[in-house]
Design brief:
The complex is a heterodimer of chains A (263) and B (323).
Chain A lengths: L1 E5 L2 E3 L22 E3 L1 H17 L2 E7 L5 H10 L3 E5 L9 H12 L6 E5 L9 H9 L3 E12 L2 E7 L5 E7 L2 E5 L11 H6 L7 E2 L1 H4 L7 H4 L2 E7 L8 E2 L4 H14 L5
Parallel strand pairs in A: 1-4, 1-6, 4-5, 5-11, 6-10, 7-10
Antiparallel strand pairs in A: 2-3, 7-8, 8-9
Helix pairs in contact in A: 3-4
Chain B lengths: L3 E5 L2 E2 L2 E2 L1 H13 L4 E8 L3 H10 L4 E6 L8 H11 L5 E5 L2 H13 L3 E6 L1 E6 L2 E8 L4 E8 L4 E5 L15 E4 L11 E7 L13 E5 L9 H11 L2 E4 L1 H5 L20 E5 L5 H4 L7 E6 L6 H4 L2 E4 L2 H14 L1
Parallel strand pairs in B: 1-4, 1-6, 4-5, 5-12, 6-11, 7-11, 14-15, 14-16, 16-17, 17-18
Antiparallel strand pairs in B: 2-3, 8-9, 9-10
Helix pairs in contact in B: 3-4, 5-9
Classes of the chains: A alpha/beta (263), B alpha/beta (323).
Bound molecules: flavin-adenine dinucleotide and adenosine monophosphate.
The site of adenosine monophosphate has 20 residues of chain A, from helix 1, strand 4, strand 6 and helix 4.
């Protein structure tokens, strides 16, 4: 089974306080810690496990800048066989459709049975997987938390729906799935693992390699544009307890008692 | 004349979901003169109940009744919508597990712009719809413009739009079942497997001590358990704790977990994503402890404490035990 996994390099929200920069044009990027989008690690782990079971190969691909190479290498250290970086100045500012068009061009250069994405990334859109499936005209299932290969042409997947219930479906291959966290336990990658793949070549494909006209992607082709970042005024918000730790504890116990929080 | 806006109504057992009304309210935020058409798909007599409810709040309802639509298979419904929607339509769905399945691909097929998880609309300027979204799990917001001149597919965050007062709009129900024809897709719905029931039923708990990724390590769960014991509370958690297999799925609060309605909810090291908060009902008194003063949970909590839970919680437990 030839599997392609789309991955994205994102600021790690558990490691960073994300703040708006002074003119609101962007978030404060200095000193940000980046990592692979949480959902994408689960997708790559699933791809590796499927390959180990039924044979084939796993390719990881990302649309990004030079620094995105590091996330491809990390996923190759996990066990992906190949990595491809799709990078070009013309790609900057792409909306979801733009990113999808770039990925499509790369996908059509190969022949994949299964394409995986994460359920969502840093801007919480959850759009690329569904768009890719439609533009490739193949079936799609989102929020997948179970995959079973039935035969060469069919898989069974579980989708996680509201309340943690699971919707079982049968899909024809090739197809696109977006992967939900919890489907597996992504393996740990140590510094030694990364070193092992440090020398592997990662091809970089730009607009002309992919046969994409520059004005169809990037900011030029985007119908959806981010104007600025801001921190909304949510009104009151929480009453923040001040003072020493002991004072906070005392106050908190008082509040808990008053609200019936201590039995 | 206003825009024509289509909304896709979710319903269950003949009852329209809250989100069905929220979408109609959202359409009004896009354009207060909009002609709003709700689309209802499904199978059997219960569809008519849903259409009746919706006719109270919008001017037109398109009903598609077909056996194959008894379960909402997004792949089927997408093909159906491509047939039904006029060119350049503005289409709204809810940003839930169905909307996430349906909507991005629909925008490709209808060649329209797509924006997911909208929390607010600020009207239309020329051909640009002005939208507010959030990024980085709600840590920052963004203004976004969306060119709707060739149509748009938009998903709205559940709970973000207040349903309008029921006006008794007297909407017309138009039967479009004939449009279904012989749609076939490469994905077949098999069954829904219900979530497993756990040892503790947190939906009945009055007081919950809830832990999130801030607990950092499986071994640290003990400190939360000690606190819960001292308080007489039950332990619940956010999704990453279940993903890591540190606690069972039945303890997860949120849209893909349990819906809880405690009197007091203590959130320890939880950032406050909308999917997590979606599982909190009945306006509990929320106390949040988080080391990041900018954590979105502080926007919704009643009381906030900026501390490292790994140090704070054991001390708190000790003081409570002292009585
Ligand atoms: C379709 C879908 C459904 C989902 N359903 C759910 C759901 O049902 N329930 C759910 O919870 N999530 C759900 N999620 C995931 C959700 O989007 C968030 O990823 C998740 O809620 C984040 O959990 P968290 O707050 O524990 O972790 P994070 O967002 O990583 O937050 C951790 C917080 O802990 C703080 N912290 C770190 N260390 C400490 C410390 N030592 N002391 C104090 N504070 C500390 C940090 O400042 C941060 O605010 C869903 C996602 C999708 C896409
Ligand atoms: N720039 C990108 N390059 C490759 N894959 C991406 C990119 N952006 C998003 N994706 C994929 O699409 C998924 C969902 O992201 P999004 O639609 O942006 O929320 C991610 O988990 C990735 O698998």
């Amino acid at each position: 089974m030839e599997i392609l996994v789309c991955v994205k390099r994102v600021p790690d929200t558990s490691e960073n306080e994300i703040e708006v920069n002074s003119n609101g044009a962007d978030i404060e990027r200095d000193d940000l810690v980046y990592s692979v989008n949480e959902w994408d690690n689960y997708a790559v782990e699933e791809a590796i496990q499927l390959r180990d079971k039924v044979g084939g190969s796993v390719t990881v691909v990302t649309v990004g800048d030079d620094e995105s190479e590091e996330v491809l290498r990390r996923e190759m250290a996990m066990g992906a066989d190949k990595g491809v970086l799709l990078s070009d100045d013309a790609f900057t500012g792409s909306d979801g459709m733009g990113t999808t068009a770039i990925l499509k061009a790369e996908i059509e250069k190969g022949k994949y049975d299964l394409i995986l994405t994460g359920a969502q990334a840093d801007d919480g859109a959850g759009q690329i997987g569904g768009m890719l499936a439609s533009i490739l005209d193949v079936p799609y299932a989102s929020l997948v938390n179970y995959i079973e290969v039935l035969d060469e042409n069919k898989i069974k997947v579980g989708r996680e729906i509201e309340g943690g219930n699971q919707e079982m479906n049968e899909l024809n291959l090739p197809c696109v799935l977006s992967i939900q966290t919890g489907i597996n336990e992504p393996r740990y990658v140590g510094i030694r693992g990364i070193r092992k793949v440090a020398k592997l070549e990662i091809p970089i494909h730009g607009a002309s390699d992919l046969g994409i006209s520059a004005d169809s992607v990037g900011a030029a082709g985007a119908r959806v544009k981010r104007v600025d970042y801001f921190v909304p005024d949510f009104g009151e918000g929480a009453e923040i307890l001040e003072g020493s730790t002991d004072e906070k504890i005392e106050k908190m116990i008082e509040i808990l008692k008053a609200k019936g929080g201590i039995k | 004349m206003g825009l024509q806006i289509f909304t896709y109504a979710i319903h269950k057992a003949g009852v329209a979901d809250d989100s069905a009304m929220e979408l109609i309210a959202a359409a009004g935020k896009i354009d207060s003169d909009a002609k709003v058409t709700a689309i209802v798909t499904g199978s059997g007599a219960e569809l008519d109940q849903v259409c009746n409810t919706l006719s109270e709040c919008c001017s037109e309802i398109l009903k598609i009744d077909h056996e194959a639509l008894a379960y909402p298979n997004a792949e089927l419904i997408r093909k159906l919508l491509v047939k039904i929607l006029p060119d350049n339509a503005v289409f709204l769905a809810v940003h839930d597990t169905f909307g996430m399945d349906l909507a991005p691909g629909l925008s490709v097929k209808t060649e329209s712009a797509f924006v997911a998880d909208v929390v607010e609309f600020e009207g239309v300027d020329g051909s640009n719809l002005k939208i507010i979204r959030q990024e980085y799990s709600g840590m920052v917001s963004t203004h976004v413009t969306c060119d709707i001149s060739t149509g748009a597919v938009l998903t709205c965050r559940p709970g973000s739009f207040q349903p309008d007062e029921v006006t008794g709009a007297g909407g017309r129900v138009i039967d479009k079942s004939g449009e279904f024809g012989d749609i076939s897709v490469g994905r077949r719905f098999l069954e829904v497997v219900e979530a497993e029931i756990g040892d503790v039923d947190i939906t009945k708990s009055e007081v919950l001590v809830s832990i999130g990724r801030g607990i950092e390590d499986e071994d640290n769960i003990e400190i939360a358990e000690d606190l819960a014991k001292a308080m007489g509370a039950d332990i619940s958690c956010s999704r990453p704790i279940v993903d890591a297999k540190w606690l069972e799925k039945a303890r997860q609060v949120g849209t893909s977990g349990q819906t809880v309605k405690p009197k007091v909810y203590l959130a320890l090291g939880i950032s406050g994503s909308f999917q997590h908060l979606g599982g909190l009902k009945g306006s509990p008194f929320i106390i949040a402890v988080n080391k990041n003063p900018k954590a979105p949970i502080f926007q919704v909590a009643d009381v906030g404490i900026i501390e490292d839970i790994l140090e704070f919680v054991p001390e708190l437990t000790e003081k409570i035990e002292e009585g």
